[in-house]
Amino acid sequence: MDFLPLLLIGLVAGFLSGLLGIGGGLVFTPILFYLFTSNGIETPVSFTIATSLFCIILVSASSTYKHIKQKNFNLNESIFVALFGVLGTTIGKQITTSGYYSEPVFSAVFMMILLYTAYSFLVKQDGNSASGKSQELPIKAKDGFMVGGLGGFVAALAGVGGGIIMVPFLNLRYHKPFHQTVSITSFAIMIISLAAVFQFALSDVAVSTLSPYSLGYVDFGAAFPLALGGMITANYGAKLSTKLNRVLLKRLFAIMAILEAIRLASEFIVN
User: Fold this and answer.
1) HEC string for the chain
2) Banded model confidence at residue 107, pLDDT cuts 50, 70, 90
3) Among 141, 154, 222, 225, which residue is least crowded by beta carbons within 10 Å?
4) For the chain, which residues make up each domain, given as ranges?
5) Residue 123: per-residue pLDDT
């Protein structure tokens, strides 16, 4: 795939990242998985996850910067989630690069993550009730271990940054306003993805990939146009997240997840 199509995809992913706090992985991962598998790359799952997470670092950094400028940022809570997320990526990376984590297993894991997200936002009770009586809960160290650890683990397994797990968890369990949830997860995703990419880049890989610009499992040539597009639009998504109706954002998040799950399932059945 040429530079321009990847750039356009990155523009869409970046906007969704800033708007929904997902790091862009819901778009980056399936696109990269298609590219690596269709070009016959060995171990396409590891390349997909590592390269997607590299894109997510840059996009999440751009989104986080915007939230900081808007004074919609809690450093202490974000750090608790992010640091324990690093531990989760270490465990997940060991599974991802093992011989047991095949393409069908990866597809099944990714589809389950997508469907869980849709369920969280369409079926579960809202973390901030209409009456406004739900009390917002603080994120402490033990909470960061649970939320961040799970998010980091999922990031290393699916290349989605972990926001797909952390966003509904923070909103529904800790009753965080959606725009505040997005700011916490954007920062956590940046740190989690950075830790995961570092580990994937240091892996000893003796196979060719899509471009000559790669290190370990990270293909920088494929990642750069995606990340560039994402950085351009992430700020706009973050700005809009504070203005749109919260229920509308949650439904958008859920619908997007369902569509991705259906697309992956259809490709798996055809192949």
Assistant:
1) CCHHHHHHHHHHHHHHHHHHCCCCHHHHHHHHHHHHHHCCCCCHHHHHHHHHHHHHHHHHHHHHHHHHHCCCCCHHHHHHHHHHHHHHHHHHHHHHCCCCCCHHHHHHHHHHHHHHHHHHHHCCCCCCCCCCCCCCCCCCHHHHHHHHHHHHHHHHHHCCCCHHHHHHHHHHHCCCCHHHHHHHHHHHHHHHHHHHHHHHHCCCCCCCCCCCCEECCEEHHHHHHHHHHHHHHHHHHHHHHCCCCHHHHHHHHHHHHHHHHHHHHHHHHHC
2) confident
3) 141
4) 3-270
5) 75
